[in-house]
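Pasting as-is:
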Amino acid sequence: MALKPGDSFPNDVIFQHIPWTEEKGDITSCGIPVPYNASKEWADKKVVLFSVPGAFTPTCSVNHVPGYIKNLPQLKEKGVQVVAVLASNDPFVMSAWGKANKVTGDDFLFLSDPDAKFSDSLGWASGGRTGRYAIVIDHGKVTYAQIETKKGAVEVSGAEAVLAHL
């Protein structure tokens, strides 16, 4: 069932993640995937989670992720503590995508939704891939949740749309 403003973020959401470290900062270096308990990690934070159909794909790489990177300071000014991009790609691909975008640290995460399990639970997946959507979670409560309905569009899930609703 899709999330909507006022809903509680589910308490059993676990993604896969490879934490960025300086010693594994090169794009050809592989870290070790670890479970990332989003429900626990985000329970007391303001978070923007946006999802894309696939890492390194045209709209995602040219428009969606760069918009969030560019607007990260404005999101922080609005109290956002974590920005996370989600795709059904494996955690190694997501880690490499973060490195390719020169994203470091733990305030912008590249997370894997294996088999689009979380996205599918929302009804926001298709063919084993995550949909293109954005969710704002404020201390466990959803305050914004929108999915794109037009292929290749970044209208309701982009950084500018999310900023307008913070």
